[in-house]
Amino acid sequence: MSDTLLVINLLSLGDWWGAYLESKRIGSDYYMAKSLILKGDTSEAIILLSEDTTCKAKRLRLSLVLSKFLMESAYDILKDSTCFTEDDKTLTDAYFLNFNEDDPLSDSLRKRLPKLLNPSTALILNIIPGLGMVYSGKPWNGIKTVLANIIGIGGIVYSIKKKHYVDAGIWYFFWENRFYFGSFQNTLEYVWEENRRRLRPYFEYIRMRIEKGGLYVRDR
Questions:
Q1: C-alpha count within 13 angstroms, C-beta hemisphere, residue 159
Q2: Does 176 have pLDDT greater than 70?
Q3: Is residue 215 one of the residues assigned to a domain?
Q4: Domain count for the chain
């Protein structure tokens, strides 16, 4: 088994440390970076790849820079015309959701975008507390929020009827403030979380195409 194949096998087995040591032994910055990626240390991998002048290393570095949404760094890497083409620039533009409708590749990437949730719609729905959470894909959290608000409103109404106005104020400020007004912030967080989940395959597809380079053909 060749040294490179050994590293590849170690990576496929999830043994990042063994792959890293073997990569270091054979002097491959590219596979050392791959090992660090498996470990989850993409920042160190980016630094390591900056020392490798091969096109495959530059492509992997661009893919990692994109994963961190470092726009300026990504376009700096693309200036190397020996390793990157106009298609790579189009892919990078699409990663940052910039599309050129006159370009077939850009248009095909735009069509890959998933349907995203609208934060404004979620906030409007959440006027009825919990409904915005249901919209964002968290029905159980929405139900709990509805119940919490019903309890809070019940406590306020009961305290007012008993003329316990201080208690009513406590119910309002410490209960409703948390479960009503706080539910708007939670709703926004759930929408962003769900949109990130939906976008993940789209981003992974673009990074894969950039990393593989010529192994992928232009979309039709």
A1: 15
A2: no
A3: no
A4: 3
| Residue numbers of the domain that contains 43 | 1-52
Query: Is residue 123 within 8 Å of 188, Cβ to Cβ?
Result: yes
| Domain end marker among 29, 52, 75 | 52
Contacts of 18 (CB under 8 A, 6+ apart): 10
Task: Please indicate, yes or no, whether the overall pTM of this predicted structure exceeds 0.85.
Answer: no
- Kindly state the tokens that stand for 110: 């735009």
CA–CA distance, 130 with 133 (Å, rounded to integer): 5
The pLDDT tens digits of the residues spanning 22-69 come to 999 998 999 999 999 999 999 999 999 998 889 999 999 999 999 999
Say what the pLDDT of residue 170 is: 63
Cα three-residue angle 210-214-215, rounded to 5 degrees? 90
How far is residue 218's CA from residue 220's CA, in Å, rounded to a whole number? 6
CB 33 within 8 A of CB 45: yes
* Of 52, 69, 92, the domain-final residue: 52
* Residue-level pLDDT at 183: 81
**Please, where are the H alpha helices in 78-164?**
86-95, 104-112, 119-125, 131-135, 139-161
CA dihedral 208, 115, 219, 96 (to 10 degrees): -60
Is 111 buried (19+), middle (13-18) or exposed (0-12) by CB count in 10 A?
Answer: exposed
Q: Residue 166 — very low, low, confident or very high, per pLDDT cuts 50/70/90?
A: low
* Residue 89 and residue 143 in one domain: no
Residue 160 has pLDDT above 60, yes or no: yes
